[in-house]
Amino acid sequence: MLRTTCIHLIGLFVLVDIASALYFHIAETERKCFIEEIPDETNVIVNYKVQLYDPRTGGFMPSSPGIGMHVDIRDPDDKTILSRVYSSEGKISFTSHTPGEHVICMYSNSSAWFGGSQLRVHLDIQVGEHAINYGEVVQKEKLSELQLRIRQLLDQVEQITKEQNYQRYRENRFRQTSESTNSRVLWWSVTQTAVLIAMGAWQMRHLKRFFEAKKLV
Amino acid sequence: MISSLISLLVLCSAILGIYASELTFELPDNGKECFYEEIKANTTATLEFQVVTGGQYDVDVTLLDSRQNVLYKQQKMQFDSHTFTAQHTGVYSVCFSNEFSTFSHKLVYMDFQVGEEEPLPGVGEHVTALTQMETSTVDTHKYLNLIIDLQTHHRLREAQSQKRAEDLNERVLIWSILETVSVIIIAASQTFMLKSFFSEKRPVGR
């Protein structure tokens, strides 16, 4: 019963409390980047919350409304997908269009105002089928328990298929690199032999002419 | 009303706790990166990591519990996995250190799973036994999770090899250019040196 109530509540509140997520510390002006290597057409949800160090209590303030976070997301071609300033707490979601390494960077917009103190950043990044909120799915589509379970399996299989396709793409790239190395080694050995023979012949001819001119032979 | 709502929300977020955190981050040379997570007592957690690129593909890892006891400490590891059960509630920390390396920066993948996967909403409320169909879905779900996990590892391994192959490719190119240039320089200098030996003696001899 409690759980159902919870789901309804979570469904209602867009901002899920992420206090239980992983966190780390950064200096106020520091830039922090994370890399997500994902297939195309994959959903990514980034949840974060920033807390400012409070020198009076020696802890971190429960909420720091004054701080904004620059969030910068780049796709594998180094094109900006998203670059905006968000508040101290937020939920960002985006969908990838090209497979590869997506870089998510965060840095605070604070200047010398607070004198370079510490920030605590709670961060949770969910990718693919983990990014699906099944609470919302249940509410929207009125699925039975079994249907929901199957729905989850379907989402998983879909994600696996995408990943496999991406794997094929990567394998293709790997093969290109290997073939390039192979042909470079081949051409290098051919060129090297040619250079050696040419230099040897040139040395011989040159010295022979030189000795003949000097009447040494 | 509002306070009860808030307390309920807090309770909810505690129940629907976040299951896993997967992060890939850059570790600069001489750098150290720490992550913290609050874990409740008697929760099982798994830490997995792998160095994707950089240097000798190794990193120092330290896992500390809430009382600063060392739970796991490895030096210069390429990849590993460690499962532990939290003894007490508190903040556990994982630190990745690259302090032994002065010039190679690294890319590290980390997966920190805490507790069980959260169940689907509305599932598992009834006390009756699962039907055969439901049991199969639970099993399938478990296996699919395993597949996804293995895929991730495969992908990371592939990324490692890809990087190595690219390095090799580049090195072959640079080395072949250097080799060709040095062969030409050596051949030319040999010839001119030999010539100079004979040229210098001539005025003395005659």
Automatic annotation (TrEMBL), chain A:
Membrane topology: Single-pass type I membrane protein
Database matches in InterPro entries: Emp24-like, GOLD_dom
Cellular component GO terms held in the UniProt record: membrane
The keyword Transmembrane helix is assigned to this record: yes
PROSITE patterns per the UniProt record, alphabetical: GOLD
Domain of life of the source: Eukaryota
Coiled-coil features, chain-numbered ranges: none
GOLD domain sequence ranges: 31-127
Keywords: Developmental protein, Membrane, Signal, Transmembrane, Transmembrane helix
A Pfam family recorded for this sequence: EMP24_GP25L
Cleaved signal peptide residues: 1-21
Keyword Translocase: no
Subcellular compartments: Membrane
Classification via PANTHER family: TRANSMEMBRANE EMP24 DOMAIN-CONTAINING PROTEIN
Family as reported in the entry's similarity comment: Belongs to the EMP24/GP25L family.
Protein name as annotated: GOLD domain-containing protein
Organism, scientific name: Ceutorhynchus assimilis
TrEMBL record, chain B:
TM region(s), chain numbering: 172-194
SMART domains attached to this UniProt entry: EMP24_GP25L (SM01190)
One annotated Gene Ontology cellular component of this protein: membrane
Record PROSITE patterns: GOLD
Assigned keywords, A-Z: Developmental protein, Membrane, Signal, Transmembrane, Transmembrane helix
Pfam families given in the database record: EMP24_GP25L
Signal peptide: 1-20
Residues annotated as domain GOLD: 32-114
Subcellular location: Endomembrane system; Membrane
Family, as annotated: Belongs to the EMP24/GP25L family.
Protein name: GOLD domain-containing protein
Lineage: Eukaryota, Metazoa, Ecdysozoa, Arthropoda, Hexapoda
